[in-house]
Specification:
GO molecular function: thioredoxin peroxidase activity
Radius of gyration: 14 Å
Helix content: 25-40%
CATH superfamily: Glutaredoxin
Domain Thioredoxin: 3-151
Family: Belongs to the peroxiredoxin family. BCP/PrxQ subfamily.
EC number: 1.11.1.24
Region (Disordered): 1-20
CATH class: Alpha Beta
Number of helices: 5
Length: 151
Amino acid sequence: MALQVGEKAPPFEAKDQNGNDIKLSDFQGKKVVLYFYPKDDTPGCTAQACSLRDSYDAMLAKGYAVLGVSVDSEKSHKKFAEKYHLPFPLLADTEHHIVEAYGVWAEKSMYGKTYMGTVRTTFIIDENGVIQEIISKIDTKNHAQQVLSNQ
């Protein structure tokens, strides 16, 4: 069952690239840009992360906290975040709890092969923990503009 705009965002807790415990409830009273991406340091994921990085100050000015989530490890996230100077937490969802709770762990296909993977999706969650918007058609190079234009 896919999540819908207007529903309460599923709670979660995970470690970020620095080993910090991050919970959705830590951001009560703030808007959250929760973006799910397939893999650290791949072209599309890098373009998306860098778009958010380059507009990070504008996001903060609008009251947004930015959280990235993939099933990669903390170590992989740390390397990715350091390489591209990412100023926001990347959550390691190695057990797939968050991707499954948000319905973004799904069957995908590439070159005729099917496999399970993360579907690139962004959830904008309001100050009360309610899903305000779901962006499923991600323009990786201009993702920050997609988020910021959703006011």
